[in-house]
Amino acid sequence: PAIGHARRMQVATPAMQHAVMIEAVENHMPEVIIIDEIGTELEAQAARTIAERGVQLIGTAHGNTLENLIMNPTLSDLVGGIQTVTLGDEEARRRHTQKSILERKAPPTFDIVVEIMDYYKVTVHPNVIDAVDAVLHQQPVQAELRWMDEKGEIKREEVIAPSNSTLNCSHMPYSFNNISCTSFALCPYHGCPLSNAAQRFT
């Protein structure tokens, strides 16, 4: 009863989830698709296809923070993907950085990322482009912390997370594919209650 008039698509095997995602768009003309546990490159590709067709997309993946997703070679394309760029000497001096830097490769599939920190606490990144670029440039990341107090009221606070100085090219030994809106949640544990979280914090 919790899903109302929504249609639930059965996935026979986890390996076929990407095909079911595309089938849902092609055969049912949905306004919104909710996907639990995007976990493979094919599913990430399907998510981009769905978003580019104008369907609102809500999805989850395992991880603790946005940086976890950026560092994941399978799922990083959900937030635009990563590529290594070599700067000229003059540009590197102007930026006060090393010559090889990490840059976002494409527009993200999802516009918003929600880090589920606790059952009653989330961190919201309302602009994924700005957040990802800040992480890659090792700059502070602006976000919004939301939580439910003992009275059941939703509280909000603007927060600034420090940059991660360990995020650099030496930690990215992967070959990233060029796969490049919508909202997204990172679930730190199995069986994340996405629907409950959405009801609590929207």
From TrEMBL:
Report the GO molecular function annotations.
ATP binding
Gene3D superfamilies noted in UniProt: P-loop containing nucleotide triphosphate hydrolases
Q: Pfam family example for this protein?
A: Spore_III_AA
Keyword Nucleotide-binding present in the record's keywords: the answer is: yes
Q: Which UniProt keywords apply?
A: ATP-binding, Nucleotide-binding
Question: What are the Stage III sporulation protein AA AAA+ ATPase domain coordinates in residue numbering?
Answer: 20-79
Q: Which PANTHER family does this UniProt record tie to the protein?
A: KINASE-RELATED, P-LOOP CONTAINING NUCLEOSIDE TRIPHOSPHATE HYDROLASES SUPERFAMILY PROTEIN
Know the name of this protein?
A: Stage III sporulation protein AA AAA+ ATPase domain-containing protein
Whose protein is this, by species?
marine sediment metagenome
